[in-house]
Known about the structure:
Largest sheet: none
Strand content: under 5%
Number of helices: 4
Number of strands: 0
Oligomer: single chain
Radius of gyration: 20 Å
Distance between the termini: 23 Å
Shape: elongated
Order of helices and strands: HHHH
Amino acid sequence: MSGNAGESKSVSLLSSLNAQAPVLQVQQNIPIERYYRSASLLLRQVDEYRASQDTSTYYVFLLRYMQLVLQTIPEHAGFGGGRAAAYRGLRQEAGRLMSELERAKGELEGMRVSVERSERRERREQREQRE
């Protein structure tokens, strides 16, 4: 039963982080250039959080970038045309970052497992002391 509880804790951590990066609905009245600028700013923040080794925040900003580039921007009426080269660059960057996103997700899952093992060890030691 403790395995299931640990699994749900891990899932809830990732669920909580995923909730911080919702897929944005396209607002056609906002110029597509703003979406491209947002993608560039997110990429800068990804670099900052990568350097700070804050895995949780790094994961959230990676996810936000990926969703903006791969899901939101292509839905905009202004997508394509003269901005195709700019989008290709963002998409190539997203492809490069996909492995980093998966690695960060794995680290977060691993951190949860490590914490759970420590908690189980502490409970076992407490039981042994009482006996």
